[in-house]
Nucleotide sugar dehydrogenase (Actinopolyspora xinjiangensis), 455 residues
Amino acid sequence: MGELPLSLAVNGREYEFNDRLVSYSSIRDTDNGVVPSALGSVAVVGLGYVGLPTVVEFHAKGIDVIGVDTSPERLRTILDGEVELAEPDRNALRHGIATGGIRLTSDSGSLGETEAVVVCVPTPVREDGTPDLVALRAACTDVAEHARPGQTVILTSTTYVGTTRELLVEPLRRRGLSPGQDVHVAFSAERIDPGNPDHRQQDTPRVVGGVTGRCSILAAEVINQVTGSVFLVSSPEAAELTKLYENIFRAVTLALANEFAEVCRELELDPIEVTLAAGTKPYGFLGGFPGPGVGGHCIPCDPYYLLWQLRGQGRSAPLLEQVMRVIRDRPQQVVTRAAELLKETEVGVERARVLVVGVSYKAGVADLRESPALPILAGLADLGAEIGYYDPLVPRVRLPDGIELTSRESPAAGEWDLVLVHTPHPEFDYRWVGRFPLVLDATYRFEHAPHRRLV
């Protein structure tokens, strides 16, 4: 099946495990009559940061696509071209809509028109850490209600183990459609890295787990249209847990990186230098960089799906529980560090004017979901500081306590007692930050203020 560079830390002998992976390409190459015919049409349910680029990828392969989203506002935004896509993908989207190759609708009845259905709805968590399954349940209900014989249905939303069977397989069976015979059902979690041009969807391997072997093959052929590398696992449950493990591992790595950065500060060492040096070891080390916290749609949310499921079974995962507490508390650590630095000045935190540079959770995207900047701003305001922010990608924010802020148009002209660097975006000039005497670098990598202090 060819070489696959596994990202493992098993004493440098990762290659010994390559034969444990089943590659769809090896099945296609042998083709004993199991590979399906070319895919002609697909429906994508949910047109967010995963669904919309998936629509574009399918259309690029000459496949007719129906994009389904229950939000009229989201559909209008897409039609207006105001979407979070790279310019080539925006052009492809516009062209697809104009020529009819991409059709957008809020009508779930159209789901019965296509050969395959791919579900890409969000799976957030509530403030108490419990899964918010409203969108997922609604989408799966619509898909099961409108499914027709011969269709392939693939769930890609990150969720708890057993979701595919519970929310798709069982409702289909109640309709009299037998998965593996009448319809084909599988799970294949999305692997999209927003804002990172180095991790394109078409170059990122995917994992597929079907209810039956035939389900896996048919689903793999669908997923193979958006990526050139697909691997099969034994069941939807194995694929579901694979995705959770990926993001749990990342959560552990980032929590450790932030804690290690504090150790480095106590020892007056640079955590980036130490991390890069450790990374020269060709086996046994998989590191991460520290930062102001962990944001986005995956890492701060997905582990709670497993913790919630385990609690329901009377079980626990103590290490993971502690990791998620560390992640939750990280923004407050940044606030505490900012207060410490301000107390060293004559101003003090209660009267300080503080500017946060960048509020999205990640450089290069305008996404505020779970962004550490929001609790950081709120925490500084609670201490009495006058807060402001600058983010050319995010014009307005609303903090948890209801405070609304607008991005400063001329941040360099302000009289800031502290500038806290949270998310500097590429292609913007931040050299002006270095003119302020007190700069707290929560990224640990900001180059424009040699006098910066670290969290």
